[in-house]
Specification:
single chain, mainly alpha, Arc Repressor Mutant, subunit A, Four Helix Bundle (Hemerythrin (Met), subunit A), two-stranded antiparallel sheet, about 5% strand, elongated
Length: about 240
């Protein structure tokens, strides 16, 4: 971090960016305490308030966390998969909203990625994973929940399936897919899809996961995606007729 140059415009932003780069490049490890505010102010030749604002920016990105007390300070933290994937989900949702991705592409992406994950889930799912999937399904079966809550339970169900892979990289990648693409799919087909159809397929999927039957589990996921694509086409027809 020697030889850093800070110009006057957006001082705190520049400090935050340079500290972030130092964290990402491994100069500061997870759990390590950053230099004090005084030390950082001296290093960059700026005021403590500018340093404090930079640290707040990093905290907002879930990269550092302040701890009080004699052994306190600002420590590097490990962002969760959910937090990291959230920013990517926002980008994917934007692309869908702008029409850069269509529903057929979304369904095909889910087919390729989610079905692949199921084989790993069959191998690694333990009792805790199964309970989480069961909990999401139980919430989804509540007839009194709203369409929005049903969609949230749908996301939770597929998230829990991915968690059952017990693979950190798959979880990171798939959380992005699930958080961005499942709500978009559901939003389009809500008018024409039947909750009972979705729930029935989810029940069967949980059953096949318990039996460690990867082939049947994959077939059920494909059946679910075929159903959603069919309902999308039906919803499109309804929308076109209403516009006449």
């Amino acid at each position: 971090m020697q030889g850093n140059v800070i110009v006057k415009a957006s001082i705190s932003k520049q400090i935050a960016e340079q500290l972030r780069n130092a964290i990402v490049s491994g100069q500061f490890k997870i759990g390590e305490r950053l230099p004090t505010e005084d030390e950082l102010a001296q290093r960059y030749g700026v005021s403590r308030p500018s340093v404090r604002e930079a640290l707040k920016r990093l905290a907002a990105q879930n990269l550092v966390r302040a701890k009080r007390g004699p052994t306190g300070g600002n420590f590097v933290v490990q962002p969760s998969f959910e937090e990291l994937a959230e920013s990517l989900s926002g980008a994917a949702t934007l692309l869908v909203g702008m029409g850069a991705l269509d529903i057929e592409e979304i369904i095909e992406a889910r087919r390729i990625l989610q079905v692949s994950c199921l084989q790993q889930a069959v191998i690694n799912a333990d009792d805790a994973h199964l309970r989480n999937i069961e909990s999401a399904l139980r919430h989804q079966q509540d007839p009194d929940i709203s369409d929005e809550e049903f969609c949230q339970a749908d996301v939770a169900f597929h998230r829990a399936l991915v968690d059952a892979t017990d693979n950190g990289m798959l979880r990171f990648v798939m959380y992005t897919v699930i958080e961005a693409l499942i709500p978009v799919t559901n939003m389009v087909v809500t008018v024409v899809r039947e909750r009972s159809d979705i729930i029935s397929l989810h029940r069967q999927m949980l059953s096949q996961l318990r039996q460690r039957n990867a082939a049947e589990l994959g077939a059920l996921m494909n059946e679910l995606l075929d159903y959603l694509l069919q309902k999308f086409e039906q919803a499109t027809t309804v929308r076109d007729q209403d516009s006449l």
